[in-house]
Amino acid sequence: MKESGRKHGALAPCAACKLLRRRCAQDCVFAPYFPADEPQKFASVHKVFGASNVNKMLQELPEHQRRDAVSSMVYEANARVRDPVYGCVGAISSLQQQINSLQTQLAVAQAEVVHMRMREFTSSSNTGAMDMAVNQDNMGESLWSC
Amino acid sequence: MKESGRKHGALAPCAACKLLRRRCAQDCVFAPYFPADEPQKFASVHKVFGASNVNKMLQELPEHQRRDAVSSMVYEANARVRDPVYGCVGAISSLQQQINSLQTQLAVAQAEVVHMRMREFTSSSNTGAMDMAVNQDNMGESLWSC
């Protein structure tokens, strides 16, 4: 597992403990995910969720899920900092609009395919009928030529 | 503006003040958005963002944007309670997958339309050539009949 720039032994504080001005313990819950060289990551989640909530949420998860949880919290927090009214719900709403638009375009294209297949089918049926008619004419001609 | 079930004068506490066990002031920032009869809304945002962060975020916004901000925070908080690892970032990821799938289906359908148009065009060009040939035959016939 990556030690995230943390110097064990020297106890250089992680970004979280540095911001919270507290001693960074060997088993600090933040240290693996908030390295000292990326202070903005913790600053965002601290501003939006609060350090104690982040701590609690991490403690409630098994270790193998914590990295993903931190990534999603950082994403959410950054979205809320950028857009304090809608946060990442704004992104959800815009993706849903995009889905609606794509579904409409897809329905139009699929309807066009069906329409063209029908026309192609009708036209090939007519050609078949014409071919039959031509064959009947040829039969007539061959009868006259007898 | 809806008073959200709050009884002015009687000072019945809003859901936030009730949960935080504090006096609900006449100008309480939570009261218009967290009515006493919907305690779960505040419980979720309190658990995920923390009451003081929600308070701060609301104070930093003009009043006409606060209702939307509360709705998006409640949505985000509920998503995080349901899915503590991915929260509403899980929804974003699933919507993005849906968009990728729709874009692929749309590209296939549009390619089929183009392909069918090309075939239709080629077939109508051939029919045109056949028509010309038929017309030339007719001309031949009419010459003989003269």
UniProtKB/TrEMBL annotation, chains A, B:
Matching InterPro entries, A to Z? LOB
Q: Which Pfam families match?
A: LOB
Q: Which domain of life is it from?
A: Eukaryota
User: Residue ranges of the LOB domain?
Assistant: 12-113
Membrane-spanning segments: none
UniProt xrefs under PANTHER family? LOB DOMAIN-CONTAINING PROTEIN 3, LOB DOMAIN-CONTAINING PROTEIN 4-RELATED
The protein in question is named LOB domain-containing protein 4-like
Q: Which gene encodes it?
A: LOC105123996
User: Belongs to which family?
Assistant: Belongs to the LOB domain-containing protein family.
User: Which organism does this record belong to?
Assistant: Populus euphratica (Euphrates poplar)
